[in-house]
Design goal:
mainly alpha, globular
């Protein structure tokens, strides 16, 4: 669509097309190497038995299933401050999925919780991706620190949504169960 808009404005040149393709390739290449590294790390993590060790540690805790889910959500919020969702999935799902299954939690419900936490991570300093996007489009007089200070109300709202979804799972399961008949 962007290509059509540039062509309609008669600003499309071969040099511009080449530069945009080159930048896109470089960014995609960087992201793919991060994903490959995360997958390799997760594979080694599982292969050496660390995932089983951590899973057993979590299962041996004397906490209720709800507290266990809260612990998982806190780890996602902390990890979201320094990494992205693919890496978190590769690292945590081999550990968390069997725990959730043993407690009988719905994977769709947990997936929604995961995605809400990713939104919190996108806003959380120091590596919140949305903060860097906002800095790129903000006027020059708005500093990065201004953006860091301004996101906390949104993070608190999203944290409240995480709590709502934890305590009222039907908020996320209503659509699949009633409209699509999948559950």
């Amino acid at each position: 669509m962007a290509l059509l808009c540039v062509a309609a404005k008669r600003k499309l040149t071969f040099a511009l097309l080449w530069e945009s393709c080159d930048r896109t390739f470089r960014i995609c290449n960087m992201v793919m190497w991060i994903i490959v590294g995360a997958k390799l790390f997760a594979t080694m993590f599982v292969t050496v038995g660390a995932a089983d060790l951590i899973r057993q540690f979590f299962l041996n805790l004397n906490v209720t299933p709800l507290v266990m889910v809260m612990i998982m959500q806190m780890t996602y919020i902390i990890m979201g401050c320094v990494t992205e969702e693919i890496t978190m999935m590769c690292l945590t799902l081999p550990i968390y999925a069997p725990i959730l299954a043993s407690y009988g939690f719905d994977p769709v419900w947990f997936g929604v919780l995961f995605m809400i936490n990713m939104q919190i991570g996108y806003l959380s300093p120091p590596f919140g991706y949305c903060l860097f996007y906002l800095k790129g489009v903000a006027p020059p007089e708005i500093t990065t620190m201004d953006l860091y200070r301004s996101v906390w109300p949104f993070i608190l709202i999203q944290a409240a949504v995480v709590l709502l979804v934890i305590f009222f799972p039907q908020l996320t399961l209503w659509l699949p169960s009633n409209v699509l008949g999948l559950r």
